[in-house]
Design brief:
Layout lengths: L1 H25 L2 H29 L16
Length: 73
């Protein structure tokens, strides 16, 4: 239940921030709502692929070390 509460509060805060940024830039509430809606959809897509990456690169149940060579610069 804690994860759900954290997710809802985070989305509320981040979408409020997006709405504030949009209003300061556009100055029109309708445009702000469109911008915030687009941000919401993009964040959902980003979250989905973020989870997929973590699922793919997570150590197995045998506690193998996580190989981070792929991510090194």
């Amino acid at each position: 239940m804690q994860h759900l509460i954290k997710a809802v509060t985070f989305e509320t805060l981040s979408n409020t921030l997006c709405l504030g940024i949009a209003y300061s830039y556009f100055g029109h509430f309708g445009a702000c709502l469109i911008f915030t809606g687009i941000c919401f959809v993009l964040k959902l897509i980003l979250y989905y692929y973020h989870e997929k990456v973590w699922e793919h690169y997570r150590p197995s149940k045998q506690d193998e070390p996580l190989n981070l060579e792929y991510w090194e610069i």
